[in-house]
TrEMBL record:
Pfam families: Epimerase. The lineage of its organism: Bacteria, Pseudomonadati, Pseudomonadota, Alphaproteobacteria, Acetobacterales. This is NAD(P)-dependent oxidoreductase. InterPro entries: Epimerase_deHydtase, Lipid_A_modif_metabolic_enz, NAD(P)-bd_dom_sf. It comes from the Bacteria. It comes from Siccirubricoccus deserti. Residues 4-241 form the NAD-dependent epimerase/dehydratase domain. Signal peptide: none annotated.
Amino acid sequence: MQTVLVTGGGGYLGSVLAHRLLGAGYRVAVLDSLVFGGQALLPLLAQANFRFIPGDVRDRACLAGALDGATAVVHLAAIVGDPACAAAPETAIAVNRDASLGLLESAAKAGIGRLIFASTCSNYGKMADTSVLATEEHELRPVSLYAETKVAVERELLSGRFAALCPTVLRFATLYGLSPRMRFDLTVNQFAAEMQTGGKLTVFGEQFWRPYVHVRDAAEAIQRCLEAPGGTVGGQVFNVGATSQNLRKSDIVALVQQRLRTPAEITRVAKAEDPRDYRVAFDKIAGTLGFAPRNTVASGIDEVVSAFETGIFPASILQAQGTAR
Protein backbone atom coordinates (compact mmCIF):
# COMPACT_ATOMS: atom_id res chain seq x y z
CA MET A 1 0.00 0.00 0.00
CA GLN A 2 1.46 3.34 -1.07
CA THR A 3 1.68 6.20 1.39
CA VAL A 4 1.13 9.51 -0.37
CA LEU A 5 2.04 12.81 1.25
CA VAL A 6 -0.21 15.59 -0.03
CA THR A 7 1.10 19.04 0.80
CA GLY A 8 -1.73 21.53 0.92
CA GLY A 9 -4.12 18.62 1.36
CA GLY A 10 -6.67 20.72 3.22
CA GLY A 11 -7.20 23.04 0.26
CA TYR A 12 -9.57 23.21 -2.67
CA LEU A 13 -7.93 20.48 -4.75
CA GLY A 14 -6.06 18.79 -1.92
CA SER A 15 -9.15 17.90 0.08
CA VAL A 16 -10.80 16.34 -2.99
CA LEU A 17 -7.62 14.40 -3.72
CA ALA A 18 -7.24 13.15 -0.15
CA HIS A 19 -10.79 11.81 -0.15
CA ARG A 20 -10.23 10.15 -3.53
CA LEU A 21 -6.94 8.47 -2.64
CA LEU A 22 -8.26 7.11 0.65
CA GLY A 23 -11.23 5.67 -1.21
CA ALA A 24 -8.83 4.02 -3.65
CA GLY A 25 -6.93 2.26 -0.85
CA TYR A 26 -3.93 4.53 -0.36
CA ARG A 27 -2.49 5.66 2.93
CA VAL A 28 -2.66 9.45 2.89
CA ALA A 29 -0.73 11.98 4.93
CA VAL A 30 -1.68 15.65 4.65
CA LEU A 31 0.65 18.49 5.52
CA ASP A 32 -1.19 21.80 5.73
CA SER A 33 -1.01 25.01 7.75
CA LEU A 34 -4.82 25.30 7.53
CA VAL A 35 -4.86 29.00 6.75
CA PHE A 36 -8.46 28.56 5.59
CA GLY A 37 -9.45 26.11 8.29
CA GLY A 38 -9.52 22.34 8.49
CA GLN A 39 -13.20 21.54 8.11
CA ALA A 40 -12.61 19.83 4.77
CA LEU A 41 -10.53 17.17 6.54
CA LEU A 42 -12.93 16.40 9.40
CA PRO A 43 -14.55 13.39 7.67
CA LEU A 44 -11.11 11.82 7.23
CA LEU A 45 -9.81 11.97 10.79
CA ALA A 46 -11.42 8.69 11.87
CA GLN A 47 -9.96 6.74 8.95
CA ALA A 48 -7.08 4.44 9.90
CA ASN A 49 -5.11 5.22 6.74
CA PHE A 50 -5.21 8.98 7.21
CA ARG A 51 -2.64 11.11 9.01
CA PHE A 52 -2.72 14.87 9.44
CA ILE A 53 0.46 16.86 10.06
CA PRO A 54 -0.16 20.50 10.99
CA GLY A 55 2.65 22.59 9.62
CA ASP A 56 4.11 24.80 6.95
CA VAL A 57 6.12 23.63 3.94
CA ARG A 58 8.66 26.34 4.76
CA ASP A 59 9.52 24.47 7.99
CA ARG A 60 12.19 21.99 6.92
CA ALA A 61 12.06 20.03 10.17
CA CYS A 62 8.29 19.65 9.92
CA LEU A 63 8.64 18.66 6.28
CA ALA A 64 11.18 15.98 7.12
CA GLY A 65 8.78 14.48 9.65
CA ALA A 66 5.94 14.54 7.14
CA LEU A 67 8.07 12.76 4.54
CA ASP A 68 8.92 9.95 6.96
CA GLY A 69 7.27 6.79 5.68
CA ALA A 70 5.96 8.35 2.48
CA THR A 71 6.52 6.64 -0.87
CA ALA A 72 5.14 9.46 -3.06
CA VAL A 73 4.52 13.18 -2.77
CA VAL A 74 1.87 15.33 -4.40
CA HIS A 75 2.97 18.92 -3.94
CA LEU A 76 -0.04 21.24 -3.96
CA ALA A 77 0.84 23.66 -1.16
CA ALA A 78 1.07 27.19 -2.55
CA ILE A 79 -0.21 30.72 -2.46
CA VAL A 80 -2.62 30.10 -5.33
CA GLY A 81 -3.60 32.52 -8.04
CA ASP A 82 -2.51 35.88 -9.36
CA PRO A 83 -4.44 38.12 -6.93
CA ALA A 84 -3.25 36.25 -3.82
CA CYS A 85 0.38 36.35 -4.97
CA ALA A 86 0.18 40.02 -5.93
CA ALA A 87 -1.23 40.83 -2.48
CA ALA A 88 1.67 39.16 -0.66
CA PRO A 89 4.58 38.82 -3.10
CA GLU A 90 7.29 38.04 -0.54
CA THR A 91 5.20 35.27 1.00
CA ALA A 92 4.33 33.94 -2.45
CA ILE A 93 8.00 33.69 -3.40
CA ALA A 94 8.90 32.08 -0.08
CA VAL A 95 6.15 29.47 -0.31
CA ASN A 96 5.72 28.83 -4.02
CA ARG A 97 9.34 28.96 -5.10
CA ASP A 98 11.75 28.68 -2.18
CA ALA A 99 9.81 26.16 -0.08
CA SER A 100 9.06 24.08 -3.18
CA LEU A 101 12.75 23.92 -4.08
CA GLY A 102 13.47 22.94 -0.48
CA LEU A 103 10.85 20.21 -0.75
CA LEU A 104 12.65 18.74 -3.77
CA GLU A 105 15.87 18.51 -1.77
CA SER A 106 14.12 17.01 1.24
CA ALA A 107 12.18 14.51 -0.85
CA ALA A 108 15.34 13.36 -2.62
CA LYS A 109 17.11 12.97 0.72
CA ALA A 110 14.16 10.95 2.07
CA GLY A 111 14.28 8.57 -0.91
CA ILE A 112 10.85 9.46 -2.28
CA GLY A 113 10.23 7.50 -5.48
CA ARG A 114 7.47 9.57 -7.08
CA LEU A 115 6.78 13.31 -6.96
CA ILE A 116 3.96 15.16 -8.70
CA PHE A 117 4.16 18.93 -8.88
CA ALA A 118 1.02 21.00 -9.36
CA SER A 119 1.72 23.72 -11.91
CA THR A 120 -0.55 25.83 -14.10
CA CYS A 121 -1.51 26.51 -17.70
CA SER A 122 -1.12 30.17 -16.74
CA ASN A 123 2.56 29.57 -17.50
CA TYR A 124 1.69 30.07 -21.18
CA GLY A 125 0.80 33.67 -20.34
CA LYS A 126 -0.25 35.87 -23.23
CA MET A 127 0.00 33.87 -26.44
CA ALA A 128 0.91 35.71 -29.61
CA ASP A 129 -1.64 33.66 -31.56
CA THR A 130 -4.52 31.97 -29.72
CA SER A 131 -5.55 30.11 -32.88
CA VAL A 132 -2.60 27.82 -32.13
CA LEU A 133 -3.16 25.55 -29.13
CA ALA A 134 -0.33 25.45 -26.61
CA THR A 135 1.18 22.00 -26.19
CA GLU A 136 3.57 21.06 -23.40
CA GLU A 137 6.47 22.17 -25.63
CA HIS A 138 5.02 25.63 -26.18
CA GLU A 139 7.02 28.68 -25.08
CA LEU A 140 6.39 29.61 -21.46
CA ARG A 141 5.58 33.30 -21.10
CA PRO A 142 4.63 33.88 -17.46
CA VAL A 143 3.22 37.34 -16.86
CA SER A 144 2.30 37.00 -13.18
CA LEU A 145 4.27 36.28 -10.05
CA TYR A 146 2.21 33.12 -9.51
CA ALA A 147 3.22 31.70 -12.90
CA GLU A 148 6.83 32.86 -12.51
CA THR A 149 7.22 30.86 -9.30
CA LYS A 150 5.70 27.78 -10.93
CA VAL A 151 8.00 28.02 -13.94
CA ALA A 152 11.05 28.37 -11.68
CA VAL A 153 10.20 25.14 -9.83
CA GLU A 154 9.35 23.30 -13.06
CA ARG A 155 12.74 24.09 -14.52
CA GLU A 156 14.62 22.89 -11.47
CA LEU A 157 12.48 19.77 -11.13
CA LEU A 158 13.08 18.80 -14.75
CA SER A 159 16.76 19.76 -14.82
CA GLY A 160 17.87 16.16 -14.27
CA ARG A 161 19.03 16.71 -10.69
CA PHE A 162 15.90 15.07 -9.32
CA ALA A 163 15.45 12.18 -11.74
CA ALA A 164 15.33 9.75 -8.79
CA LEU A 165 12.03 11.34 -7.74
CA CYS A 166 10.45 10.26 -11.05
CA PRO A 167 9.02 13.79 -11.23
CA THR A 168 5.89 14.74 -13.11
CA VAL A 169 4.66 18.28 -13.75
CA LEU A 170 0.92 18.76 -14.15
CA ARG A 171 -0.11 22.10 -15.67
CA PHE A 172 -3.70 22.40 -14.57
CA ALA A 173 -6.32 24.38 -16.41
CA THR A 174 -8.31 26.79 -14.22
CA LEU A 175 -10.24 24.72 -11.69
CA TYR A 176 -13.94 24.85 -10.91
CA GLY A 177 -16.63 22.75 -9.21
CA LEU A 178 -17.66 21.77 -5.71
CA SER A 179 -15.06 20.90 -3.08
CA PRO A 180 -15.09 20.33 0.69
CA ARG A 181 -12.94 23.49 0.88
CA MET A 182 -15.06 25.57 -1.46
CA ARG A 183 -13.71 28.56 -3.36
CA PHE A 184 -15.79 31.30 -4.98
CA ASP A 185 -12.84 33.30 -6.28
CA LEU A 186 -12.55 30.96 -9.28
CA THR A 187 -14.20 32.23 -12.45
CA VAL A 188 -16.77 29.50 -13.11
CA ASN A 189 -17.76 29.18 -9.45
CA GLN A 190 -17.94 32.93 -8.98
CA PHE A 191 -20.00 33.62 -12.09
CA ALA A 192 -22.48 30.86 -11.26
CA ALA A 193 -22.76 31.95 -7.62
CA GLU A 194 -23.11 35.69 -8.22
CA MET A 195 -25.61 35.33 -11.05
CA GLN A 196 -27.66 32.84 -9.04
CA THR A 197 -27.72 34.72 -5.74
CA GLY A 198 -27.65 38.35 -6.87
CA GLY A 199 -29.06 38.24 -10.37
CA LYS A 200 -26.22 40.33 -11.73
CA LEU A 201 -22.54 40.18 -12.62
CA THR A 202 -19.79 42.52 -13.76
CA VAL A 203 -17.44 40.89 -16.29
CA PHE A 204 -14.03 42.29 -17.14
CA GLY A 205 -12.32 41.37 -20.41
CA GLU A 206 -14.83 38.78 -21.55
CA GLN A 207 -13.08 37.99 -24.85
CA PHE A 208 -9.88 36.40 -23.50
CA TRP A 209 -9.32 32.65 -23.51
CA ARG A 210 -8.65 30.19 -20.65
CA PRO A 211 -8.98 26.42 -20.35
CA TYR A 212 -11.02 24.97 -17.46
CA VAL A 213 -11.09 21.62 -15.64
CA HIS A 214 -13.26 20.29 -12.83
CA VAL A 215 -11.54 19.82 -9.46
CA ARG A 216 -12.60 16.15 -9.36
CA ASP A 217 -11.10 15.55 -12.79
CA ALA A 218 -7.88 17.22 -11.65
CA ALA A 219 -7.74 14.77 -8.72
CA GLU A 220 -8.26 11.87 -11.10
CA ALA A 221 -5.37 13.05 -13.27
CA ILE A 222 -3.10 13.02 -10.22
CA GLN A 223 -4.14 9.48 -9.32
CA ARG A 224 -3.52 8.32 -12.88
CA CYS A 225 0.01 9.72 -12.67
CA LEU A 226 0.62 7.96 -9.36
CA GLU A 227 -0.46 4.66 -10.88
CA ALA A 228 1.29 4.98 -14.25
CA PRO A 229 4.67 3.28 -14.84
CA GLY A 230 7.56 5.49 -13.86
CA GLY A 231 8.99 5.31 -17.36
CA THR A 232 5.76 6.75 -18.71
CA VAL A 233 5.45 9.81 -16.47
CA GLY A 234 8.93 10.41 -15.05
CA GLY A 235 10.40 13.68 -16.27
CA GLN A 236 7.20 14.52 -18.15
CA VAL A 237 4.92 17.54 -18.31
CA PHE A 238 1.19 17.15 -18.90
CA ASN A 239 -1.44 19.79 -19.51
CA VAL A 240 -4.52 18.75 -17.53
CA GLY A 241 -7.90 19.54 -19.03
CA ALA A 242 -9.85 19.09 -22.27
CA THR A 243 -9.39 21.01 -25.50
CA SER A 244 -13.15 21.52 -25.82
CA GLN A 245 -13.14 23.38 -22.50
CA ASN A 246 -11.06 26.30 -23.74
CA LEU A 247 -13.58 29.08 -23.17
CA ARG A 248 -13.92 32.85 -22.95
CA LYS A 249 -15.63 34.55 -20.04
CA SER A 250 -18.47 35.44 -22.40
CA ASP A 251 -18.97 31.71 -23.07
CA ILE A 252 -19.20 31.01 -19.32
CA VAL A 253 -21.71 33.81 -18.81
CA ALA A 254 -23.86 32.34 -21.59
CA LEU A 255 -23.72 28.89 -20.01
CA VAL A 256 -24.78 30.26 -16.63
CA GLN A 257 -27.64 32.18 -18.27
CA GLN A 258 -28.85 28.94 -19.84
CA ARG A 259 -28.95 27.28 -16.41
CA LEU A 260 -30.70 30.04 -14.46
CA ARG A 261 -34.48 30.22 -14.21
CA THR A 262 -34.45 34.03 -14.53
CA PRO A 263 -32.07 36.19 -16.60
CA ALA A 264 -29.23 37.94 -14.81
CA GLU A 265 -28.14 41.53 -15.35
CA ILE A 266 -24.67 41.53 -16.96
CA THR A 267 -22.39 44.56 -16.96
CA ARG A 268 -19.51 44.18 -19.39
CA VAL A 269 -16.32 46.16 -18.86
CA ALA A 270 -14.09 46.19 -21.92
CA LYS A 271 -10.37 45.56 -21.51
CA ALA A 272 -8.23 46.21 -24.56
CA GLU A 273 -5.37 44.25 -23.05
CA ASP A 274 -5.18 41.26 -20.74
CA PRO A 275 -1.86 39.85 -19.49
CA ARG A 276 -3.20 36.30 -19.90
CA ASP A 277 -4.81 34.99 -23.07
CA TYR A 278 -4.16 31.36 -23.92
CA ARG A 279 -5.75 28.26 -25.45
CA VAL A 280 -4.26 24.90 -24.57
CA ALA A 281 -4.04 21.42 -26.11
CA PHE A 282 -4.58 18.35 -23.94
CA ASP A 283 -3.80 15.54 -26.38
CA LYS A 284 -0.72 14.31 -24.54
CA ILE A 285 -2.41 13.35 -21.28
CA ALA A 286 -5.28 11.78 -23.20
CA GLY A 287 -2.95 9.68 -25.35
CA THR A 288 -0.45 8.78 -22.65
CA LEU A 289 -2.68 8.21 -19.62
CA GLY A 290 -6.09 7.79 -21.23
CA PHE A 291 -7.31 10.79 -19.26
CA ALA A 292 -10.51 12.49 -20.38
CA PRO A 293 -12.40 14.80 -18.00
CA ARG A 294 -15.78 13.47 -16.93
CA ASN A 295 -17.18 16.94 -16.30
CA THR A 296 -17.77 20.06 -18.36
CA VAL A 297 -18.06 23.70 -17.41
CA ALA A 298 -21.80 23.40 -18.05
CA SER A 299 -22.16 20.51 -15.57
CA GLY A 300 -19.99 22.35 -13.06
CA ILE A 301 -22.21 25.41 -13.30
CA ASP A 302 -25.23 23.19 -12.70
CA GLU A 303 -23.82 21.72 -9.49
CA VAL A 304 -22.83 25.14 -8.10
CA VAL A 305 -26.21 26.69 -8.90
CA SER A 306 -28.01 23.64 -7.48
CA ALA A 307 -26.03 23.94 -4.24
CA PHE A 308 -27.39 27.46 -3.77
CA GLU A 309 -30.90 26.52 -4.84
CA THR A 310 -31.05 23.73 -2.26
CA GLY A 311 -29.65 25.96 0.48
CA ILE A 312 -26.37 24.10 0.97
CA PHE A 313 -24.60 27.44 0.43
CA PRO A 314 -26.20 30.62 1.76
CA ALA A 315 -25.87 33.74 -0.39
CA SER A 316 -23.89 35.36 2.44
CA ILE A 317 -20.97 32.99 1.83
CA LEU A 318 -19.90 35.13 -1.12
CA GLN A 319 -19.24 38.11 1.14
CA ALA A 320 -16.44 36.21 2.89
CA GLN A 321 -14.50 35.37 -0.26
CA GLY A 322 -12.88 37.41 -3.02
CA THR A 323 -13.84 37.40 -6.66
CA ALA A 324 -12.06 36.47 -9.88
CA ARG A 325 -12.57 39.30 -12.30
